[in-house]
Design a protein that fits this description.
single chain; alpha/beta; 7 helices; 18% strand; globular
Protein backbone atom coordinates (compact mmCIF):
# COMPACT_ATOMS: atom_id res chain seq x y z
CA UNK A 1 0.00 0.00 0.00
CA UNK A 2 3.04 2.30 0.06
CA UNK A 3 2.23 3.76 -3.38
CA UNK A 4 -1.37 4.65 -2.47
CA UNK A 5 -1.87 8.39 -2.21
CA UNK A 6 -3.99 9.80 0.57
CA UNK A 7 -6.91 11.78 -0.76
CA UNK A 8 -8.77 14.47 1.13
CA UNK A 9 -12.13 13.85 2.73
CA UNK A 10 -15.15 14.24 0.45
CA UNK A 11 -16.68 17.69 0.19
CA UNK A 12 -19.76 16.37 1.96
CA UNK A 13 -18.45 14.94 5.26
CA UNK A 14 -19.93 11.74 6.67
CA UNK A 15 -22.67 12.06 9.27
CA UNK A 16 -21.34 13.05 12.69
CA UNK A 17 -24.35 12.14 14.83
CA UNK A 18 -23.92 15.60 16.34
CA UNK A 19 -27.47 16.83 16.87
CA UNK A 20 -29.82 15.90 19.64
CA UNK A 21 -32.62 13.65 18.41
CA UNK A 22 -35.81 15.63 17.76
CA UNK A 23 -39.27 14.52 18.74
CA UNK A 24 -40.20 11.52 16.65
CA UNK A 25 -43.79 12.39 15.84
CA UNK A 26 -44.18 10.01 12.89
CA UNK A 27 -42.65 6.89 14.39
CA UNK A 28 -44.69 3.95 13.13
CA UNK A 29 -46.21 2.07 16.06
CA UNK A 30 -49.44 0.20 16.53
CA UNK A 31 -50.88 3.00 18.65
CA UNK A 32 -49.12 5.86 16.81
CA UNK A 33 -47.46 6.84 20.09
CA UNK A 34 -45.09 9.81 20.22
CA UNK A 35 -41.51 9.23 21.34
CA UNK A 36 -40.11 12.26 23.09
CA UNK A 37 -36.59 13.19 24.06
CA UNK A 38 -36.04 12.69 27.82
CA UNK A 39 -36.47 15.65 30.13
CA UNK A 40 -33.23 17.24 31.40
CA UNK A 41 -31.75 16.02 34.66
CA UNK A 42 -33.43 17.79 37.56
CA UNK A 43 -30.36 18.43 39.70
CA UNK A 44 -30.05 21.69 41.69
CA UNK A 45 -26.50 22.46 40.55
CA UNK A 46 -27.42 21.98 36.88
CA UNK A 47 -30.60 23.99 37.26
CA UNK A 48 -28.57 26.85 38.77
CA UNK A 49 -26.56 27.33 35.56
CA UNK A 50 -29.22 26.68 32.93
CA UNK A 51 -29.84 29.81 30.91
CA UNK A 52 -26.39 31.16 31.81
CA UNK A 53 -23.29 31.28 29.64
CA UNK A 54 -21.69 27.84 29.51
CA UNK A 55 -18.65 27.45 27.26
CA UNK A 56 -17.45 24.24 25.69
CA UNK A 57 -13.81 24.89 24.81
CA UNK A 58 -13.91 22.35 21.99
CA UNK A 59 -15.24 22.16 18.44
CA UNK A 60 -16.02 18.45 18.83
CA UNK A 61 -19.64 17.70 17.88
CA UNK A 62 -19.36 14.46 19.85
CA UNK A 63 -18.61 16.30 23.11
CA UNK A 64 -21.43 18.72 22.41
CA UNK A 65 -23.82 15.82 21.88
CA UNK A 66 -22.75 14.12 25.10
CA UNK A 67 -23.30 17.29 27.14
CA UNK A 68 -26.74 17.66 25.56
CA UNK A 69 -27.59 14.26 27.03
CA UNK A 70 -27.34 15.71 30.54
CA UNK A 71 -29.34 18.79 29.58
CA UNK A 72 -26.51 21.20 28.71
CA UNK A 73 -27.53 21.90 25.13
CA UNK A 74 -27.41 25.71 25.04
CA UNK A 75 -23.63 25.98 24.83
CA UNK A 76 -21.23 28.60 23.53
CA UNK A 77 -18.69 26.74 21.39
CA UNK A 78 -15.35 28.53 21.74
CA UNK A 79 -12.38 26.27 20.97
CA UNK A 80 -8.93 27.19 22.19
CA UNK A 81 -6.67 28.49 19.42
CA UNK A 82 -3.41 27.89 21.30
CA UNK A 83 -1.29 25.17 19.63
CA UNK A 84 -1.09 21.89 21.53
CA UNK A 85 2.67 21.73 21.80
CA UNK A 86 3.34 19.67 24.91
CA UNK A 87 6.09 17.07 24.41
CA UNK A 88 5.03 13.50 23.69
CA UNK A 89 7.68 12.43 26.20
CA UNK A 90 5.18 13.26 28.95
CA UNK A 91 3.15 10.39 30.31
CA UNK A 92 -0.27 10.10 28.61
CA UNK A 93 -1.89 11.14 31.91
CA UNK A 94 0.17 14.33 32.14
CA UNK A 95 -0.11 15.06 28.42
CA UNK A 96 -3.92 15.06 28.30
CA UNK A 97 -4.24 16.86 31.64
CA UNK A 98 -1.88 19.68 30.65
CA UNK A 99 -3.50 20.01 27.23
CA UNK A 100 -7.05 20.16 28.62
CA UNK A 101 -5.96 22.61 31.35
CA UNK A 102 -4.37 24.87 28.76
CA UNK A 103 -7.56 24.83 26.68
CA UNK A 104 -9.74 25.72 29.68
CA UNK A 105 -7.44 28.46 30.99
CA UNK A 106 -6.97 30.07 27.57
CA UNK A 107 -10.68 30.27 26.83
CA UNK A 108 -11.60 31.32 30.38
CA UNK A 109 -9.11 34.21 30.43
CA UNK A 110 -10.25 35.36 26.98
CA UNK A 111 -13.92 35.33 28.01
CA UNK A 112 -13.86 36.55 31.60
CA UNK A 113 -14.24 40.19 30.53
CA UNK A 114 -16.36 39.47 27.48
CA UNK A 115 -18.99 42.13 26.55
CA UNK A 116 -21.72 39.49 26.81
CA UNK A 117 -20.74 38.64 30.37
CA UNK A 118 -18.41 36.24 32.12
CA UNK A 119 -19.03 32.52 31.71
CA UNK A 120 -20.78 30.60 34.45
CA UNK A 121 -18.79 27.53 33.43
CA UNK A 122 -15.99 26.52 31.05
CA UNK A 123 -15.61 22.87 30.11
CA UNK A 124 -12.53 21.61 28.26
CA UNK A 125 -11.34 18.12 27.38
CA UNK A 126 -8.56 16.34 25.55
CA UNK A 127 -8.46 12.71 24.40
CA UNK A 128 -5.50 10.64 23.27
CA UNK A 129 -5.12 7.08 22.04
CA UNK A 130 -2.04 5.30 23.35
CA UNK A 131 -0.55 2.18 21.82
CA UNK A 132 0.38 -0.80 23.96
CA UNK A 133 3.98 0.34 23.68
CA UNK A 134 3.12 3.73 25.17
CA UNK A 135 3.12 5.82 21.98
CA UNK A 136 0.65 8.71 21.88
CA UNK A 137 -1.06 8.41 18.51
CA UNK A 138 -1.86 11.45 16.41
CA UNK A 139 -4.39 11.74 13.61
CA UNK A 140 -3.26 9.72 10.58
CA UNK A 141 -1.09 11.70 8.19
CA UNK A 142 -1.88 9.68 5.07
CA UNK A 143 -3.88 6.68 3.93
CA UNK A 144 -0.78 4.51 4.29
CA UNK A 145 -0.20 5.83 7.80
CA UNK A 146 -3.88 5.32 8.63
CA UNK A 147 -3.80 1.67 7.55
CA UNK A 148 -0.57 1.00 9.45
CA UNK A 149 -1.99 2.67 12.58
CA UNK A 150 -5.12 0.52 12.63
CA UNK A 151 -3.17 -2.66 11.86
CA UNK A 152 -0.87 -1.83 14.75
CA UNK A 153 -3.82 -1.39 17.12
CA UNK A 154 -5.29 -4.70 15.95
CA UNK A 155 -2.04 -6.63 16.20
CA UNK A 156 -1.17 -5.28 19.65
CA UNK A 157 -4.41 -6.76 21.06
CA UNK A 158 -5.28 -3.76 23.24
CA UNK A 159 -4.64 -0.05 23.62
CA UNK A 160 -5.60 2.75 26.02
CA UNK A 161 -7.74 5.83 25.59
CA UNK A 162 -7.23 8.70 28.04
CA UNK A 163 -9.51 11.71 28.37
CA UNK A 164 -8.81 14.66 30.64
CA UNK A 165 -11.68 16.95 31.60
CA UNK A 166 -11.17 20.38 33.17
CA UNK A 167 -14.06 22.50 34.48
CA UNK A 168 -13.68 26.13 35.56
CA UNK A 169 -16.09 28.62 37.14
CA UNK A 170 -15.61 32.20 38.37
CA UNK A 171 -15.74 32.75 42.12
CA UNK A 172 -18.36 35.02 43.63
CA UNK A 173 -15.89 36.10 46.31
CA UNK A 174 -12.74 38.14 45.74
CA UNK A 175 -10.57 35.19 46.73
CA UNK A 176 -7.45 34.82 44.56
CA UNK A 177 -7.15 33.55 41.79
CA UNK A 178 -10.78 34.44 41.13
CA UNK A 179 -11.87 31.07 39.80
CA UNK A 180 -12.41 27.48 40.88
CA UNK A 181 -11.02 24.65 38.79
CA UNK A 182 -11.45 20.88 38.98
CA UNK A 183 -10.07 18.14 36.75
CA UNK A 184 -9.96 14.41 36.18
CA UNK A 185 -8.32 11.93 33.82
CA UNK A 186 -10.18 8.77 32.81
CA UNK A 187 -8.73 5.63 31.22
CA UNK A 188 -10.41 3.01 29.04
CA UNK A 189 -8.87 -0.12 27.53
CA UNK A 190 -10.00 -0.93 23.99
CA UNK A 191 -9.49 -4.30 22.32
CA UNK A 192 -9.81 -4.71 18.57
CA UNK A 193 -11.15 -7.98 17.25
CA UNK A 194 -8.53 -10.55 16.28
CA UNK A 195 -10.62 -11.37 13.23
CA UNK A 196 -10.43 -7.81 11.85
CA UNK A 197 -8.97 -8.39 8.41
CA UNK A 198 -6.68 -6.19 6.34
CA UNK A 199 -9.56 -5.90 3.88
CA UNK A 200 -11.90 -4.58 6.57
CA UNK A 201 -9.30 -2.08 7.75
CA UNK A 202 -8.77 -0.80 4.21
CA UNK A 203 -12.50 -0.53 3.66
CA UNK A 204 -12.91 1.41 6.91
CA UNK A 205 -10.00 3.73 6.15
CA UNK A 206 -11.60 4.64 2.82
CA UNK A 207 -14.80 5.75 4.54
CA UNK A 208 -12.63 8.62 5.88
CA UNK A 209 -14.55 8.53 9.16
CA UNK A 210 -11.33 8.15 11.15
CA UNK A 211 -9.20 10.56 9.11
CA UNK A 212 -9.69 13.41 11.62
CA UNK A 213 -9.46 11.33 14.79
CA UNK A 214 -6.49 10.48 16.98
CA UNK A 215 -5.96 6.74 16.68
CA UNK A 216 -7.74 6.72 13.33
CA UNK A 217 -11.18 5.42 14.34
CA UNK A 218 -14.49 6.54 15.84
CA UNK A 219 -16.05 4.00 18.19
CA UNK A 220 -19.41 5.79 18.10
CA UNK A 221 -19.68 5.36 14.33
CA UNK A 222 -18.60 2.82 11.72
CA UNK A 223 -15.39 2.28 13.70
CA UNK A 224 -17.36 0.11 16.12
CA UNK A 225 -16.92 -2.75 13.65
CA UNK A 226 -13.22 -2.88 14.60
CA UNK A 227 -13.79 -3.14 18.35
CA UNK A 228 -14.26 -6.46 20.14
CA UNK A 229 -14.74 -5.05 23.67
CA UNK A 230 -13.75 -2.30 26.04
CA UNK A 231 -12.89 -2.14 29.72
CA UNK A 232 -14.07 1.14 31.17
CA UNK A 233 -16.26 3.99 30.01
CA UNK A 234 -17.59 4.00 26.43
CA UNK A 235 -18.15 7.77 26.37
CA UNK A 236 -14.56 8.25 27.52
CA UNK A 237 -13.49 6.73 24.19
CA UNK A 238 -15.95 9.00 22.36
CA UNK A 239 -14.29 12.00 24.00
CA UNK A 240 -16.09 13.01 27.21
CA UNK A 241 -16.75 10.72 30.19
CA UNK A 242 -20.17 11.93 31.30
CA UNK A 243 -20.32 10.68 34.88
CA UNK A 244 -16.97 12.21 35.94
CA UNK A 245 -17.82 15.42 34.04
CA UNK A 246 -21.10 15.74 35.91
CA UNK A 247 -19.24 15.24 39.21
CA UNK A 248 -16.69 17.94 38.26
CA UNK A 249 -19.45 20.44 37.43
CA UNK A 250 -21.07 19.84 40.81
CA UNK A 251 -17.75 20.11 42.66
CA UNK A 252 -16.56 23.29 40.95
CA UNK A 253 -19.87 25.01 41.68
CA UNK A 254 -19.76 23.75 45.27
CA UNK A 255 -16.22 25.14 45.61
CA UNK A 256 -17.65 28.60 44.92
CA UNK A 257 -20.43 28.16 47.51
CA UNK A 258 -17.94 26.94 50.12
CA UNK A 259 -15.63 29.92 49.58
CA UNK A 260 -18.55 32.35 49.79
CA UNK A 261 -19.54 30.78 53.11
CA UNK A 262 -15.96 30.99 54.40
CA UNK A 263 -15.73 34.62 53.33
CA UNK A 264 -19.02 35.46 55.08
CA UNK A 265 -17.86 33.75 58.28
CA UNK A 266 -14.58 35.66 58.20
CA UNK A 267 -16.47 38.94 57.81
CA UNK A 268 -18.68 38.09 60.78
CA UNK A 269 -15.66 37.43 62.97
CA UNK A 270 -14.08 40.82 62.22
Amino acid sequence: MSDVKYTSAPVEPPPRYETTAPLLTNFPTAKSSILRAPLPLDLPFLTSIRGRKIILASASPRRRQLLAQIGLSDLSIIPSTVPEAFPKTLSPFEYVLQTATQKAMTVYKAQINSPDGEPALVIAADTVVVSRGGQILEKPRSETDHIAMLKGLRDSVSHKVYTAVVVMAPLSSARDPGYAVESTVEETTVKFGKDVSDELILSYVRTREGADKAGGYGIQGIGAILVDRIEGSFDNVVGLPLKPTLALIEKVLQDDEDLVDEFAEAQDEE
